[in-house]
Amino acid sequence: MKSFKSLVLFVLTICAAITLSGCGSIESAASDDCTSIGWQIGSKGYQDCFKSRVYERKLDYSLPPGDKPSPSVI
């Protein structure tokens, strides 16, 4: 039983790490976008650019309005 609890905890930890790394990749890509066009980190223009790029990327990865996720066959 102790082994099962350890396995469940391990799987949850791995899932959390994968989820958090996904969020970081959106933010790092947005940061790369803004610095590549010349904004310096910390400037007002950079902050505006960063917020808008993160928003755009989240829209790109979200489902269209009214679309419901279908269950996986697996």
Strand and helix map with partners:
Blueprint: H1 2-36, H2 44-61
List keywords for this structure.
74 residues; 2 helices; mainly alpha; single chain
Characterization of this structure:
This is Lipoprotein. It comes from Polynucleobacter antarcticus. Residues 1-21 form the signal peptide. Keywords: Signal. This protein has 74 residues and is mainly α. The model has no long low-confidence stretch (mean pLDDT 80). It has a domain at 23-58. The two termini are 27 Å apart. Helix 1 (2-36) packs across helix 2 (44-61). The protein has helices at 2-36, 44-61. Helices cover 72% and strands 0% of the residues.
Terminal CA distance reads 27 Å
Note the beta-strand portion.
under 5%
Number of strands: 0
Structural class based on helices, strands and sheet pairing: mainly alpha
Largest sheet: none
The chain-level mean pLDDT equals 80
Radius of gyration: 18 Å
The H-and-E topology, N to C, reads as: HH
Shape: flat
Helix content: over 70%
User: Spans with pLDDT under 50 lasting ≥5 residues?
Assistant: none
Keywords: Signal
Protein name: Lipoprotein
Summarize the structure.
The model has no long low-confidence stretch (mean pLDDT about 80). The protein has helices at about 1-35, 45-60.
